[in-house]
Known about the structure:
This protein is of the alpha+beta class. About 35% of the residues lie in helices and about 25% in strands.
Amino acid sequence: MIADEKKELFSEDKMNKIISLCKRRGFVxxxxxxxxxxxxxxxFGPYGVELANNIKAAWWQAMVRKNENIVGLxxxxxxHPRVWEASGHTTGFSDPLIECRKCHAxxxxxxxxxxxxxxADEKMTEEEINKLLDENKDKIECAKCGAKDFTxxxxxxxxxxxxxxxxxxxWEKNPVYLRGxxxxxxxxxxxxxxxxxxxxxxxxxxxxxxxxxxEITARQFIFRKREFEQMEMQMxxxxxxxxxxxxxxxxxxxxxxxxxGIKEKNLKWRKHKNLVFYAKxxxxxxxxxxxxxxxxxxxxxxxxxxLSRHSQYSGxxxxxxxxxxxxxxxPHIVETSTGVERIFLALLTDAFTEEKLSDGTERxxxxxxKKLAPIKVAIFPLLKNKxxxxxxxxxxxxxxxxxxxxxxxxxxNIGKRYRRQxxxxxxxxxxxxxxxxxxxxxxxxxxxxMKQKRIxxxxxxxxxxxxxxx
Length: 470
Ligand code: ATP
């Protein structure tokens, strides 16, 4: 029934349609919406939280469950303020911004330069940045109003302050921060894990958790949030092995996205041209979002910087002694760092499809990988006002719901129910009709092909198990 003809969407149009679907169907809501929303903060709705949980489970499975030498951790969001001094965040974690003198929009300089094909060095001073901006001033215009008149660039720190535990009220001088990245919790627990778990180098610590950044430019929906969730793994390695292990993880992380079901044509590698002084190698995996190829994951060889700095600031020895050779060294770190929201948005971008059907109607369908779909099976009685159909459909729902994420629906007509399930990406819809009462079979409709077939109720579980793992 699906005609070949598919509508190619303009990117902006596609982004707006995804945002609208997310709101309409309960994937993502603007935070505190009844108060007018809260810039760059979003909430996951009923289907969003399912999809996000499925993404996290897939990552945990690939990183912790499948690797004997990787263990999990869940460190607290609040950390000792010295952590952020040691990490360099209190001084170096900043984005340079300029302000349009006409409309007062604040723009990130690294984004402006990137659009001009110039990669800014993170270490650049305000003076150097302003010089670069001056050299390119004819090419830079305000993304909002088109004006070409800007203030000088100024760096803004991204760490989010809190007043936790500071009863003197002097929290401006002595702030506790909401963590800006999850990996610091991993570094400061390196010794604890080493002493308590049976791990030997090379080993990894993996963590999923919230991170907070005072992102100045709130744009691109959930791509850039002020509160978001990172999934990070830090591998502790022998200095001589670090780059080999780094190469292995580069390949493995690429494969993770393919295994997740993301289309390879929408992924690409980007090499960091200007490495920070301690880094040995740094590549990003980028995804083709409706607003262009942007970072989804960073894979970095960080040398011994992190453990050395924490050793220096805490006064604790964070070296490792090889029990066989007796060799003592500060491990080098290979990091893989991705975000739940960016994978979420990549999956929606990959999956969002508008189709013109041969009967002239159109449908919107989220062709999500089945294993990640928020609802796996929807169960309908053909008619709402026939108790015998409703009872039978409810029985099937009760029977399957502990194993598969199911939804029971008897609202509106069957066509409307299919449209709704298509829009939230439900792979299968099961309908109980009058034949079911005679022969214990149901129709099972496939989301992508829209084809229906009859299956014995007894065989439903096996059918779903077989077909939902892709
Ligand atoms: P960008 O250059 O886009 O600001 P970044 O290089 O600062 O990103 P990292 O510090 O390397 O990002 O963070 C690792 C991962 O965490 C990113 O690849 C991304 O998936 C996620 N991430 C970072 N910042 C945000 C954010 N503001 N909102 C959502 N996810 C984020």
